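Suppose a colleague, Dr. K., hands you the sequence of a protein chain of 206 amino acids and asks what its three-dimensional shape might be. Before reaching for any lab equipment, you can write down a predicted structure in token form. Begin with the sequence itself:
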Amino acid sequence: MPSTLQIDTIKDASASNTLFEQSGSDWKWGSGVPEGTVLQVQNDILQGIDSFATVGAGGAVNAAWQNSSLSIAITPKQTGSKMFITTNLRASWDLADASIGVKITRHPAGGSEADVAVGTDTGSNRIAANANIYLGVLGSALEIGTQLLDAGTVTAGTAITYRVKCRSMDNPGSISLYLNRGESAYGDANYVGTSTSSLTIFEVAQ
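The predicted structure, expressed as tokens, is then:
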């Protein structure tokens, strides 16, 4: 005959670690989650157009990183977790021979903002970023994707805000950058697509 087992908490043999517990009408992982388990997924989608008027003049080193509309404030469920970050961006610009840089930053509550896994071969002039795309055709749009594992400190209950930032990598005084804008040379034509950009974060138990 079928039987029913009713419980509200599952602990390990020592009873010191809670593996699974009831929270209201839902269930949630405890502190003894198996390594590699996805604890939560957060997603932010940009469906409109982001526009960035470049800041600075006289060379790319004077340009500034600017916040996009894509950001996620995620509150970790477990201390020591890793955050797996993915982005899918559709970027364009309004000047030929232009270049766009993209990076992800992390900002824990009560702490300082920092870059996530940017390139380190900066030399004397190169700009640290997660991605850098160049296309010499006016108004073209390109897909930019990144996959990063944030190695920074993660503390249960302390929110971390992740944000996508963009910047011009050259000619900062005369370029505008865009996310999700179609090919500008063709305007509102029935063969020009409009798209979305996204930021997704997975908390993974370690």
